[in-house]
Specification:
- The chain is built from 22 helices and 2 strands.
- It is mostly helical and about 700 residues long.
- Among the domains are: about 280 residues, no CATH class; about 120 residues, no CATH class.
- It holds the Pfam family LMBR1.
- Keywords: Coiled coil, Membrane, Transmembrane, Transmembrane helix.
- Belongs to the LIMR family.
């Protein structure tokens, strides 16, 4: 089993990252380089979280071997206390051979740092650029990232000057590497505590509120009102941008040097707008002969960028509106079925997507009723209580993990108890649950936050390239300090435990933070205590109240604006529900009519077609008899005979007056009497 656990987790994490990226990204429409870069960033970050428990168990086994092989006189005090008998020091099932983990962590860490600090910021600017050539996009990306890169060089230079001036340190390459890692981890830890403080409170509260059907329905109405406003704004913005594109397309003709740029912009427009605007290829007037003010390439680049943004935003709001409607309809169905005596879940509308037959077989209406109306609320309540317990343990450990005598961090107590008995499965499970919960609190906040319309991770393949790349940057910057914080909570980091023990392979790659004492002994220890203040602020919704005061409507139960938006959203959902019901009733009536009269209509249609064929064959036979004689005598071809029949015009003997003008004697010409000649007052088929 040596190395098998590592290989299995590598494969599993890859498919997990691929599944999440498929949910948020669009593999068909987005650029392959964007998909690959985002997938690599997510994959490396998730891989660190899943592999770190194996590193911890392997390190504890190596400490055990070192303690057993060392004599009491040669061993350290910490080794004597940990030294068990030789029978207890057995190899764990997930043991990773020596030399593999340092190389693995070095490759993973430096690749993620290269992505987050160099490649992904450049690709962000490249993806948002409206340039029409690769060179133009690269130039724009370099200009936009000049200030970005300069800022981080300034921070690194400040750390470098501090170490160079301090006489206690001899500046070496390993210390420079440690300074760079410390600078990156300091920035990541600053953001980590902010996101962690929000997630520790919001995740248990969201699951507790998930058990309240009325709460979820009111919040859905609130979201519907806000989304309708955003949807209308996106439609209006798209109309304005398309109007500008139409004007530019009319001004820049086919022979203008910038026509290729206009064609590129038109390809990014929706199909209905492309058909409406066209390409004006019927106008062959030279652009030099007109005195119009033509837009330059810079203005077209700006317009191209606006088109990409407006089209993506419009498509995203349309998809989100349909998803929100389905969610609102389902919650209303749950509220109706809760008082049902039949205990059968009845849907107002049938699912538009075909359901799996296996799911239909097991997830019957009775099972669905028991789950949605009876079991699911209690399941969410129990899960919320468990998550709340985990959150309290994390907050307590964040405030006390620096204490080694006595050990106050609960995670460190659990790991040390398992280390004394060398129960490696318990060690790995405890480490995995701890770091997994921390990761969920941090990563879920990354998926939830929204910075206006510039950064927004929308599910159902509606996330743009800029947001995907930005999320990859955040993950790569948050994961290393998250792992260091986890090792500090469990006292596996020698900087925290103050023990001369073998460090984990991960901390050996990070280097000794003693190079910067004010960071190792100050910032890394006392800054995580701010998570208590952030949890209190999140519990009382201080951030939500501040945003509400600034004009950004947030869901608050005691706000008059929230009540108005709930009423507005409820009316919107009711209107869409009536529209959907009318559509389904119309489809049902057409289906019933087709099932009832379909066969009769088919037989009648077949008889009519058969009669028409007979009449047409009889008419052709009678018409061809005199023409065949005429053709033989004059030597006309078949083509002349067909043209002669086509040129012959029938006379209308039922007309009120005869017009001598041949141009006004067409059979379909409209007459002053308000009728067509083919629709005369006499009954045409009376003589049939």
């Amino acid at each position: 089993m040596s190395g098998a656990a590592l290989g299995l987790e590598i494969v599993f994490v890859f498919f997990l990252a691929l599944f999440l990226l498929h949910r948020y990204g669009d593999f068909k429409k987005q650029h392959r380089l964007v998909i690959i870069a985002t997938l690599l960033a997510w994959y490396l970050c998730f891989l660190i979280v899943f592999i770190l428990p194996l590193d911890v168990s392997t390190t504890i086994y190596n400490r055990c071997k070192l303690a057993v092989n060392s004599s009491p006189a040669e061993s350290n005090g910490s080794y004597v206390t940990l030294a068990p008998s030789k029978q207890k020091c057995f190899k764990p099932w997930s043991y990773i051979p020596n030399g593999i983990m340092p190389i693995f962590w070095r490759v993973v860490y430096w690749t993620s740092q290269f992505l987050t600090w160099i490649l992904l910021p450049f690709m962000q600017s490249y993806a948002r650029s409206g340039g029409f050539s690769i060179t133009g996009k690269i130039k724009t990306a370099l200009i936009e990232n000049a200030i970005y890169y300069g800022t981080y060089l300034l921070i690194f230079g400040a750390f470098l000057i501090y170490v160079a001036v301090n006489p206690n340190f001899n500046l070496q390459w390993s210390q420079l590497q440690t300074i760079g890692i410390a600078a990156a981890n300091t920035w990541g830890l600053f953001l980590l505590v902010l996101l962690l403080g929000y997630g520790l409170v919001e995740i248990p509260r969201s699951h507790w509120n998930g058990a309240k059907r009325g709460y979820l329905l009111m919040k859905t109405y609130f979201k519907a009102a806000k989304l309708m406003t955003e949807k209308a704004d996106a439609e209006e913005n798209l109309e304005d941008i398309m109007e500008e594109v139409r004007k530019v397309s009319e001004i820049i003709k086919y022979n203008h040097p910038l026509r290729k740029c206009v064609d590129t912009i038109l390809k990014k427009c929706p199909t209905e707008y492309q058909e409406r605007m066209g390409r004006n290829m019927d106008d062959y007037e030279d652009f030099d002969e007109r005195q119009n003010s033509y837009p330059n390439e810079r203005s077209l680049v700006k317009l191209h960028k606006q088109v990409i943004y407006s089209v993506q935003r419009h498509r995203r709001t349309q998809v989100q509106w349909q998803i929100l409607l389905e969610q609102a309809f389902y919650l209303e169905d749950v509220a109706k079925n809760e008082i049902s005596a039949t205990r059968q879940f009845v849907h107002t509308f049938h699912s538009q997507e075909p359901e799996n037959k296996i799911i239909q077989y097991f997830y019957t209406p009775t099972v669905e009723w028991y789950w949605e109306c009876l079991l699911r609320p209690w399941f969410y309540r129990v899960l919320a209580v468990v998550l709340t317990t985990f959150s309290l343990i994390v907050v307590w450990s964040e405030c006390t993990f620096f204490s080694t005598k006595p050990v106050l961090s609960l995670f460190a107590v659990f790991i040390q108890l398992a280390e004394n008995t060398y129960n490696y499965i318990y060690i790995e499970m405890a480490c995995f649950l701890t770091i997994f919960f921390l990761s969920i609190c941090v990563y879920s906040t990354v998926f939830r936050i929204r910075v206006f319309n510039y950064y927004y991770l929308a599910s159902h393949h509606q996330t743009d390239a800029y947001s995907l790349l930005f999320s990859g940057m955040l993950f790569c910057r948050l994961t290393p300090p998250l792992c260091l914080n986890f090792l500090g909570l469990t006292h596996m980091d020698a900087t925290i435990s103050h023990k001369n023990t073998q460090p984990t392979a991960y901390t050996s790659i990070m280097g000794s933070m003693r190079v910067l004492s004010f960071i190792a002994d100050g910032f890394y220890i006392y800054y995580p205590m701010l998570v208590v203040i952030l949890c209190i602020a999140t519990y009382f919704s201080l951030g939500t109240r501040c945003l509400n005061l600034l004009g950004f409507q947030q869901f608050m139960g005691d706000s008059e604006m929230t009540s108005d938006l709930i009423d507005e959203g409820k009316e919107l959902i009711r209107r869409e529900k009536r529209k959907r019901q009318r559509q389904e009733e119309g489809e049902n009536r057409r289906r019933e009519w087709k099932e009832r009269y379909g066969n009769r209509d088919d037989s009648t249609r077949n008889r009519a077609v058969h009669t028409d064929q007979k009449e047409s064959s009889f008419t052709e036979t009678n018409a061809n008899r005199p023409l065949s004689k005429y053709t033989r005598s004059n030597g006309r071809t078949e083509r002349d005979r067909i043209e002669l029949l086509q040129d012959a015009e029938p006379l209308d003997f039922n007309a009120d007056s005869v017009n001598d003008d041949p141009l006004e004697s067409d059979s379909g010409r409209y007459q002053p009497g308000g009728r067509y000649l083919s629709m005369s007052r006499s009954k045409i088929f009376d003589d049939v």
